[in-house]
Structure formats: C-alpha cells, structure tokens
From TrEMBL:
GO terms for molecular function: oxidoreductase activity. This is NAD(P)-dependent dehydrogenase, short-chain alcohol dehydrogenase family. SUPFAM superfamilies: NAD(P)-binding Rossmann-fold domains. It comes from Roseovarius pacificus. Keywords: Oxidoreductase. InterPro entries: KR_dom, NAD(P)-bd_dom_sf, Peroxisomal_Beta-Oxidation, SDR_fam. Residues 7-203 form the Ketoreductase domain. It comes from the Bacteria. Belongs to the short-chain dehydrogenases/reductases (SDR) family.
Length: 291
C-alpha cells in the first residue's frame, strides 16, 4: 500500500515536465490524480488537449487512477472545473499542487503590457483560481495540503523575468497568508522553488550548463511527495528550494535584530552610524546566498 492510498490529488500544469513527474509518483503511491494541463507551447499561446491525456494513459497503464482536465486555470471557471472533476470522479480533493505556468521573458525596459498581464494571470491569478474551491472544500472536510510553486526568480531575482518574478513573489505572499488562515482548519501550506531542466527552462544558461540527469523533474518529485504526505507531519508555512543539482534546502526571509532609535528622534545620518545593526553584510552567517 502506498503512502497516499485513499488520497485525491489535483496537479495543474501536469501534462509534462515537473507536473507530470509529480503525477506519476503520487499515483504510484496510491493517490488518484486529476491531471490538469491546457497544453501548447511554454508561452501559453495555444492548447493541446492530448498532453494531459498522455500522462493519464501512462498512469492507468501502470495500474493507477487518473483523469485528464484541460481547463484554463487562470479563470474562475477553469479552477472550478478542475475541482469538480476531482469530486465527481474520486469524491475528494485532499491535495492540490499549483504547478501550471508560462514564460514571456523580456528585460524590463522591453516588457509589454500583454506579456506582463498574461504571465501574472496564469501564475498568480491561476493559483488563486485553482486554490479557492479546493481550500473551501478542505475547510469543511478536515483539511488537506496545498503546494504552491514559486521560483528563485521571484524570491531572489533573475534578469529578464520581471513579470514572471513578480507573479512568483506574489505566490509566496499568498502562501504566507494561507498558512495563517488555514492552520485552524488543518490545511497545510508549502511553497516550492524548484530547479529543473524542462521546456520552461531549457534556454536558461545555468540549467543548460548542468548535466541533464542532475536537473531532471524526477529529482524534484520526491520532495513534493514528502510535502503532501504524512511524512512531513504537521509542518506548514515552509518554503523549500529543491534541485537535483543542489539538493533540498529551506528558504527564509531573515530579519536582523535592528537598531532601535531613541525616543527623541533620529536622522538619516544615524542610520549610517548604525548600518551594521540594520543591514546584513555579505559575509553575515545568515545572509542570503544568491544563486
């Protein structure tokens, strides 16, 4: 018996890459899976309904349970559709992995409104649309686990991805709020910043230079299985950076002890004087490592 026996998982963007790897692993551990994917190229300009069905066929051929959903999760109707397919086919929605995404990379000076809006819509609004019906079901049914996909492009920054990074940073903020609001309902929230070689990242220099095996989507999937299973206990509100090349690490926003100015006021010059109390230095043991 698998560690997810009796659970129902919804995975968006699961027609290939990371999502497909998650779907296959979770299904092998006993979960029934709703495989959502609009399909098409990575910029979201077209659709291909066969992508989700191909993954479903692989799962069912291996003895698992899965159904395909090709709805656009960047719309309220699409998010509701994925949830309803989970309930209609399997009777529950215990796990949600928000993984769907597109890329429209441009340097900020060349960014267009269209490329900004569609990227934020798919990533950030899509996470909202897919999460809302599932979250409300979990509130009434004893809880569940939600994994939201962020990125180091949003948490740290990356050239040419102001639209993508802004959306991914927003997803991290959403996860923080859901952690606070969902705790009393038994809803556990994870944020994932994966590093894998997929069609989304195939032209990113640091991914192109790494061995393909070290950055395979299958190298991320075990961490996701840990998050959504009982192996992770009651943990919630955690952000994990996961890569086959760099392993697994928790990512946190750190706060310095800071400087408390006197009650009679302070000046900008005082900030310079107390800079070592206010700012992290590059060699501070808790300073974030840029990568």
């Amino acid at each position: 018996m698998g560690i997810l026996e009796g659970k129902v998982a919804i995975i968006t963007g699961a027609g290939g890459g990371l999502g497909a790897a998650y779907a296959r692993l979770l299904a092998s551990e006993g979960a029934a899976v709703v495989v959502n994917d609009l399909g098409g190229p990575r910029d979201g300009s077209a659709s291909d309904v066969s992508m989700a069905q191909t993954v479903v066929d692989e799962i069912t051929a291996a003895g698992g349970r899965a159904v395909a959903n090709c709805s656009d999760i960047s719309t309220m109707e699409g998010g509701q559709s994925v949830f309803e397919d989970a309930i209609a086919n399997f009777g529950a929605a215990n796990i949600l992995i928000n993984n769907a995404g597109i890329l429209r990379d441009k340097s900020f000076a060349k960014m267009t409104e269209e490329n900004w809006d569609i990227c934020v819509k798919v990533h950030l609004k899509g996470t909202f649309c897919a999460t809302l019906p599932v979250y409300n079901w979990m509130k009434e049914n004893g809880g569940g686990v939600i994994v939201n996909t962020s990125s180091t492009s949003g948490l740290i920054g990356n050239f040419g991805q102001s639209n993508y990074g802004s959306a991914k940073g927003g997803i991290w903020g959403l996860s923080n709020v859901l952690t606070v609001e969902g705790r009393k309902y038994g809803i556990r929230i994870w944020t994932l910043a994966p590093g894998a070689l997929t069609r989304m990242t195939e032209d990113v220099p640091r991914y192109k230079a790494a061995p393909e095996k070290a950055l395979s989507p299958e190298g991320i999937a075990p961490a996701v299985l840990y998050m959504v299973s009982d192996l992770s206990g009651e943990q919630t509100g955690k952000t994990l950076g996961v890569s086959g090349a760099r392993g697994v690490r928790e990512l946190k926003m750190m706060e310095m002890e800071g400087w408390n100015p006197p009650g009679d006021g302070w000046t900008a010059q005082d900030m310079l004087t107390h800079a070592d109390e206010i700012f992290f230095e590059e060699d501070h043991p808790l300073a974030a490592r840029r990568f």
